[in-house]
Amino acid sequence: MEIKVVRKVLAVNERMAAENRKLFSNKGIFVLNLMSSPGSGKTAILEKTLARLLPKVPAAVIVGDVYTTRDADRLARSGAPVVQITTGDFGGTCHLAAHVVGEAAAGINLDAVAVLFIENIGNLICPGGYDLGEDVRGVVLSVTEGEDKPLKYACIFRSCDFTVLNKVDLLPHLTFNKEEAIANIRAINPNMQIFETSAMTGQGLDVWIAWLEEQVRAKRCRTRGALAND
Amino acid sequence: MEIKVVRKVLAVNERMAAENRKLFSNKGIFVLNLMSSPGSGKTAILEKTLARLLPKVPAAVIVGDVYTTRDADRLARSGAPVVQITTGDFGGTCHLAAHVVGEAAAGINLDAVAVLFIENIGNLICPGGYDLGEDVRGVVLSVTEGEDKPLKYACIFRSCDFTVLNKVDLLPHLTFNKEEAIANIRAINPNMQIFETSAMTGQGLDVWIAWLEEQVRAKRCRTRGALAND
Question: How do residues A97-137 score in pLDDT, each as one tens digit?
């Protein structure tokens, strides 16, 4: 009985995710679903990313937390439209679901947005099973978490298009073996794109931003036809 | 319909947790349920803890992961009996449940155990709702995760008896404000016992071990009557 209900929930989620995807594509918006453990630095990366993208690339954020609006408060300082979802109101759900993202997106003027970041709830397990209608999925892995996490949380890493290996400024103070971590990521997902960053020092953000801008341009071309000077 | 099933699952879990609790108490075993984000250092703390407790205080470990037996392999080197639960076999469940712990405990000679550590799956949300039959619940919080985590993952922090604030050796390299973190913990849970540790350098482990030994002695006295020299 439990399994049946879970299947039904996932089927509903898939339907709602398809609706989100259609909406976002109609608007030519590039959408990222960012997942990670608590405290990996998702919000800090987004803060730095928004500061570099805006105003050239108009961005919006949907951010999920079980409790508090702290992340939304931090991100709103960028000037970007930010919608906070607190799942504590919905029984403390441990992941974002497509219908919740759809409702949040309705609160954003999507015609003025080129890239939408969905900052998922800090959880390396449950969010992986829920398509939100995104174009790409990324996982943020802090180097303080250890090399073995891609193997232990394989589903998330398998489902993602890119990994942001964050807090690399701390590497001199850790026993973390970066080569082993990258080998573990590739063992789970050979095609994973890997960015090495420090939200604190700014290291590696240029490469990440350049990739992002390229994706935003490509999404626009795919969905609105090739526009000159875009 | 979904809610009904979840309620039923939790009611079954409570019944199984009560059975575990009765079994552990009959044997005079002190049981800890350790929860945290991925990569907070639960396993490293347990490695150091087992090395100091054994052979004086006989200990066993039940360790949960979605995938891999890496943590069990690390902990088994201590010589303690270790049972790994990999929930990937059960549909990738994101938390330990009482019946799974009961089955794992059946594989341990409990008559030879004074303290049982249950290392839960790395997840700051879902494990909080599942009583495993433990005496105390602890959350390991790495200082690399940020001061705000007790507020954002309030349910886990509210349900715990103690916090292990780990990786304090990294404090000189972080902007982490320890006083703010502790204030946040106390705002959620005024009675929280807080240990500051570094599994890497050993800092703070003496206080943690002394507390543990005291709890083990107290549990034995409560359940077997006061024994001299115990």
Answer: 999 999 999 999 999 999 999 999 999 999 999 999 999 99
Check CB contact under 8 Å for B39 and A92.
no
| Rounded CA separation A217/A51 (Å) | 18
Cβ neighbours of residue A170 closer than 8 Å, sequence gap 6 or more = A143, A144, B144, B170, B173, B174
3-state helix, strand, coil in chain B (%, to 5): 50, 15, 35
- State the Cα–Cα distance between residues A164 and B98, nearest whole angstrom: 35
Percentages helix, strand, coil for chain A (3-state, rounded to 5) are: 50, 15, 35
Radius of gyration, CA atoms only, chain A: 17
**What does the pLDDT read at residue B1?**
35
Q: Residue A227 pLDDT more than 80?
A: no
**Contact flag B66-A175 (C-beta cutoff 8 Å):** no
CA-to-CA distance for B213 and B58, rounded, in angstroms?
Answer: 11
For the full predicted model, state whether its pTM sits above 0.90: no
Binary contact (B175, A200; C-beta < 8 A): yes
Report the alpha-carbon distance of residue B10 to residue B7 in Å, rounded.
Answer: 5
The arithmetic mean of pLDDT across residues B212-226, rounded, is: 83
Between β-strands B193-196 and B115-119, what pairing exists: parallel, antiparallel or unpaired? unpaired
Tell me whether B125 touches chain A (CB under 8 Å).
yes
3-class DSSP state of B64: strand
- Phi and psi dihedrals of B163, rounded to 5? -120, 135
Q: In what order do the strands lie in the sheet with B193-196?
A: B82-86, B59-65, B115-119, B30-36, B136-142, B162-166, B193-196
Give dist(CA B108, CA B225) in Å, integer.
24
How far apart, in whole angstroms, are the C-alpha atoms of residue B1 and residue B122?
A: 29
Indicate if the pLDDT at residue B152 is higher than 90.
yes
**Bridge partners of residue A204, in order along the sequence:** none
Over residues B52-98, the pLDDT tens digits come to 999 999 999 999 999 999 999 999 999 999 999 998 865 668 999 99
Per CB-CB distance under 8 Å, the chain B contacts of A67 are: 151-155
Rounded distance between C-alpha atoms, residue B87 and residue B91, angstroms: 7
Q: How far apart are CA A24 and CA A120, in angstroms?
A: 18
Could you give the percent of chain A with pLDDT greater than 90? 86
Sequence-ordered strand ranges (E) for chain B:
30-36, 59-65, 82-86, 115-119, 136-142, 162-166, 193-196
Closest-CA residue of A relative to B6 is A2
The candidate with the shortest Cα–Cα distance to A164, out of A197, A186, A136, A188, is: A197
User: Running DSSP on this structure, what letter comes out for residue A199?
Assistant: T
